[in-house]
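User: I'll paste a sequence; please echo it back and then give the predicted structure.

Assistant: Echoing your sequence first, then the prediction.
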Amino acid sequence: MAIPRYCVLNTQAKMPTLGFGSYLLKGDPLRSALDYALFVGYRLIDTAYSYHNEADIGQVVKDRIKAGKLNRKDLFITTKIAKTHMRKADVATCFQKSLHDLQTSYVDSLLIHHPWSVVSVGPEGKQHFDNVDIVETWAGLQSLFREGSAKSIGVSNFTIDQLKRILSCNGPPLSHLQMECHAYLAQYKLKDFCDANNIVVTAYSPLGAPNVPTADANQKKHLLADPLINEIAKKVVKTPAQILLNFLMKRGMVVVPKSKNRDRLKENFKSRDWVLSTEDFNSILQLDCGVKYFKFSNRKGHQEYFPEADF
């Protein structure tokens, strides 16, 4: 048995179940890692306007296509509209910059990166809020879908109530939700809601965000070092990362782990070649303890800010 290679969006597009996460990667390290990932077989690339790495990604993809090593139609590229560009008039501007940098005429999935909008980010990360209705931003994504430059559209970091507001809109459908999810944060309610509404879920930080630059106290609880995960990994002769990725994919999620290490990139990609036993899968389910590595505390006070209790 093995994990399915693709999941099918409600647009009928096929999305790979495992992808290359690019958060915090830039420049030569990113270009080297992505080129190797594409060589290994990765076909899903996850990026965002606010990652400031789309030009690097675009160059790698262009070079591989030019060399005859890759076809654009075989890639699935996801990018995201920044929180500074959530007014409908600004959505297209943000997206056109992404298309230019990625050197492509379309992306396979376009997401609203966060439900909260800001005018700018000041010193020390202070947010200057701009209270834009997420429905207005969604209308901008729907326009891009109709034009054909965004083959599917979705959201990231949204709560169930926020998803309901998007689903109540007429027009092109919500296909995709990206959210933090891992063995310490099961997100049962959100996953069940998405399943019921034919929305594919991508889990970001599937390995517990070990390198996120934050003072979050939860960083002291390292998922990759969890005794149960390591016990199962030793038993089935896999890496802890492979256990964690396989676990989420068995739950029906897409995963986008980040690494610039070639050995880890190869190991992560092989996470779909087998399936956890029911016993081990159920044991990992018991690890859920509500640990959230991305709390977005600097968004407190925004009309769309959600308390942790929503998770």
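The longest strand covers residues 174-180. The chain has a mean pLDDT of 94.
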